[in-house]
Amino acid sequence: MDTSTYGDEESPMSDLMVDFIMSLDGYGAAEGWPGFWGMEGPEYLAWIGDDEAEEHDALMGATTYRLMSGFAAEMPDDPGMAALTALHKVVFSSTLEEPLAWANSELVSGDAVTAVRQMKAQGTRLLRTIGSVSLCRALLEAGLVDRFRVVVFPVITGATGQERIFDAYPDVALELVGSRLFDGRLQLLEYVPTVLDGPPGDGSA
Q1: Number of independent structural domains in the chain
Q2: Beta bridge partner(s), residue 191
Q3: Alpha carbons 205 and 195: distance in angstroms, whole number
Q4: Residue 145 belongs to a domain
């Protein structure tokens, strides 16, 4: 059953969206598990293709760049990887050096928050993150994130989970603005985030 309300309202092209896939307990990956925890289905894969085709700039840190560029090099004919290769990608890193091997990748070695703030002010394209937990946390803390989107996979990986997404995050209120069910098991949730100064009941938020 598709309970979609997602996509009813288009975000302005200068908006910044943080994008994660995660287990129910908030991990971005798990040791020994296949990609997508082995739970990707035809509806979800078709949506990924359509979603990546939307014109946008992809933002990522060095760790995600190394991982994803490696996948792209190993699987150049994979439709998903080919779509990522075709995207304009902005990589924030003080350790990588030009020229970046992955096509259409631009290196920014300065402060990511400052750079993204300028991109949002001057740009005309949607900005979206790929992975990059610490980068996303910094952008959220700086008040630059317009949408926060997750796809929740129905698995708990307490023993094998890696890359806990929300550790060291501030408190954040989330207004649900879109949802969709893929293949009867994967839940997409899209929120407008508001970073809080403290719990709502203590008068400081």
Answers
A1: 1
A2: 148, 176
A3: 9
A4: yes
* 178 in a structural domain: yes
Convert the pLDDT of each residue in 138-182 to its tens digit: 999 999 999 999 999 999 999 999 989 999 999 999 999 999 999
Q: Is residue 10 assigned to a domain?
A: no
The type of residue at 138 is A
62 in Cβ contact with 134 (< 8 Å): no
**Of 74, 170, 76, 62, nearest in space to 107 by CA:** 62
> Residue 141 sits in which domain range?
16-202
91-126 pLDDT, tens digit per residue, is 999 999 999 999 999 999 999 999 999 999 987 789
Contact yes or no for 103/143 (Cβ under 8 A): no
Of 98, 69, 96, residue with least CA distance to 84: 69
Q: What is the CATH number of the domain that holds 154?
A: 3.40.430.10
- Establish if 196 belongs to a structural domain: yes
Q: Is 50 helix (H, G, I), strand (E, B) or coil?
A: helix
Q: Is 182 exposed, middle or buried (0-12, 13-18, 19+ CB in 10 A)?
A: buried
| CA 128 to each of CA 31, 52, 154: distance values in angstroms, whole numbers, following the listed order | 26, 10, 24
